Structure formats: structure tokens, C-alpha cells
Amino acid sequence: MLDLVIGILAECWDILLESAPYVLFGFFATGLLRALVPEDVVARHLGKSSVGSVLKASLFGVPLPLCSCAVIPAAIGLRKQGASKGASAAFLVSVPETGVDSVAITWALLDPVMTIVRPVAAFLTATITGLLINLLPEEAAQPEDKEQSSCGNSCCGAEQAPQQPLMRRLRDGQTFAFGELLGDIGKWLLIGILVAGVISFLVPDDFMTRYLGSEFISLLIMLAVGIPLYICASASTPIAAVLILKGLSPGAALVFLLAGPATNAATLTVVYRFFGRAATGIYLASIAVSSLLFGFLLNRFYALAGIDIISWVKPHEISASSPFAVVSAVLLLVLIGKNFLPGKKSSDCGCGDSCSS
Predict the structure, then answer these.
(1) Is CB count within 10 Å lower at the N or C end of the chain?
(2) Which residues contact 145 (CB under 8 A, 6 or more apart)?
(3) What's the CA gap between 322 and 162, in Å, rounded?
(4) Global pTM?
């Protein structure tokens, strides 16, 4: 039993060493975005049921530093401010599927191709979803749609404060990124690393090729696993990396990375309430079909290009002996641990999930 625990913890430590420097960089970049991008910039550019508004919503959502609970009232807020259904839905898809932090950890644990394809696929999935929903006729607003979101703290959209000086915004942005946001995402990231460590230690290296040899079946299984599973974009990455090492195709991993963060019970419930039954069906179907399509195309690209993703995913021995990696891992654990100290409140917004990106 002791050997089992030690083996799993050793695998978790290796994954943490590999990813910690990039995770810290991702949160630093998130803090910069928070400071430099006005919070109302998205709302000012959306409104009409046009292709342009959907494209802007998808593009704005890709790097935006919002947690999953915050994107729900944010998307509904855009809708109440006059944004089209399609633009609001596109924003609701693109934000949780990717972000600066998840792109950084994708670079650390996967490969350059996946690092590029993941946000591009998220953008295209969000755009397809928004355009299809915009084809639906507008319906009269329901009385309950006019109510304010039940989420009542800063994570879920507080009133906008007057514009602050740049240095103050830079400081506040980093405080948000390494405080509230890291606290929200950190526990899910550690859970993701723990799950990845368990899979890495216990699952045989040929498990996926032996039991999921069919490409189409593996894509469908990852879709079936991802849709109901609540997991943030950053936490899903180490799990996907370990599954690839066990023989999962990069396309099936992409399906998991796209479908998991964008679909969960809370999101689908809100989409149903504010956008209607037809829009909910389109929302779920477009994410599912797009994920499968992009996963299939990604497998074709790797095959045609002759790229071996496993050679990139394998942990680099230099990380284990790098003082910088060790310091980064310890620092990340300390920053996450600070949020579990007495007096620290989790920014659970009551949206049905804990906040995570």
C-alpha cells in the first residue's frame, strides 16, 4: 500500500514539475489581461444578430480571464445588454474551453501543435455554435429572464468601478490572478494532477491501444466522458497528457479538452432557461459534433505530418533536476495552499459549480 501511495505521489510530482513554471506564467499573463482589457469591452462590441458579433464574442472569450461560474452571469449579462443569442452563446463556449492559463499548461504538457489547435478549435466551436443559434427566431423575453443572476459576489459580476491608474490596475490584476482566480482553479488543477498521477502509475502503457483501438470509438468515449464531467480547462490538460502516453490519440484527447470544460449541468440549465429548448439542443449538438470533427481532423494531420506526439508528451528529465522547476512547483503549491487557510473564503458563486476556468 505504501509503495502504491509513493508511486502515485512521485508521478504527481513529476507532472507538477513539468507544468508549474508554465502555470505561473499563465496566471501572470491572465493578470495582465485583467488589468489592460476593460471589463465592458466585450459588451460594447456585441449586440446585433450578425456574423461579426459572434466572431467578436468567440475571439474575446478565448483568452479572457473569467472563471466558469463568472462566464455564466457574464454571458447572460451580455444578453440583457442587447447582445444576440448567438454572440452570448459563443462567449459562453469560448471562455471555459481555453484561456491564457490553459494554453500555457498545454505547451508544457502536450506539444506545439495541440497548443495552437486547442484555442483555434475553441474559437471555431464557439463561432459555429453562435451562428447556428442566431438562425433561431428571437423570442419574447420571459419575466424570469429579467431577474438578476443569483450569483452575488465579485466572481459573478459586480458593478463596474471607475477606471483606475495603470499601476493600480496592474497590481489589482496580479492580485486577482494569484489570489481569487488561482484559489478557484488551483484545487481543480491539483485534482487533475492527482487523477493524472493515478492513471500514469496504475494504467498499463498499452491500455488505450488494446481496449480503445478503434479511432471512432475512442472519440465517442472521450465525448461521453467529457460532456457530463465538470472539469476546468487547466485541470483537464494533465489528464489528457497522461491518456496520450497510454495510447490515446491526440484527436480523442482534443475531444475531451473541448467538450469537458464547455458542457456541464449548470451551463446547460442556464442555456435552457435564457435561450430556450431549441438553442440548448443546438448548443450541445454543435459542441459535440465540432469536437468530434476537430478531433478526427487532428488525427489526420498528425498522421500526414508524421508527428509523434508521445515524444513531446514524455516528461523531460531536465525538469526533475531543474531548480527553477522545483522552486516553481513549491511556489505554486504555497499560493494554492494560502487559499485553504482559515479565513479564506472560496469564491463559489452559487452558480451550481465552484469557480474555475
Answers:
(1) N
(2) 80, 273, 274
(3) 44
(4) 0.76
Q: Is 350 helix (H, G, I), strand (E, B) or coil?
A: coil
* CA distances, 101 to each of 43, 183, 250 (Å): 23, 13, 20
Name 33's Cβ contacts closer than 8 Å, sequence gap at least 6: 63, 64, 65, 100, 173
Residue whose entry in the numeric block shows the C-alpha cell 501511495: 5
Angle, vertex CA 253, rays to CA 252 and CA 259, nearest 5: 90
Cell of 290: 465540432
What is the rounded CA–CA span in Å between residue 248 and residue 214?
10
Q: Does residue 335 surpass a pLDDT of 60?
A: yes
pLDDT band at 138 (very low <50, low <70, confident <90, very high): low
Q: Are 145 and 55 in contact (CB under 8 A)?
A: no
Per-residue confidence (pLDDT) for residue 143, from 0 to 100: 41
CB 185 within 8 A of CB 67: yes
Quote the CA–CA distance of 163 and 356 in Å, as a whole number. Answer: 26
8 A C-beta contact, residue 357 and residue 67: yes
CA-wise closest residue to 95 among 52, 125, 133, 53: 125
Q: What are the grid coordinates assigned to 283, written together?
A: 448548443
What does DSSP assign to residue 214?
S
Give the dihedral sign, CA 275/260/75/266. Answer: positive
Q: How far is CA 341 from the centre of its chain?
A: 26
Contacts of 209 (CB under 8 A, 6+ apart): 247
Q: Are 88 and 2 in contact (CB under 8 A)?
A: no
Tens-place pLDDT, residues 60-110? 888 875 655 556 766 776 777 677 788 888 988 998 888 888 888 899 889
- Inter-CA distances, 299 with 66, 209, 284, 294, Å: 30, 15, 23, 9
Closest by Cα among 259, 332, 329, 244 to 293: 259
| Alpha carbon distance 263, 97 (integer Å) | 9
**Distance between CA atoms of residues 39 and 259, nearest Å:** 26
Structure-model confidence comparison of residues 134 and 205, the more confident one: 134
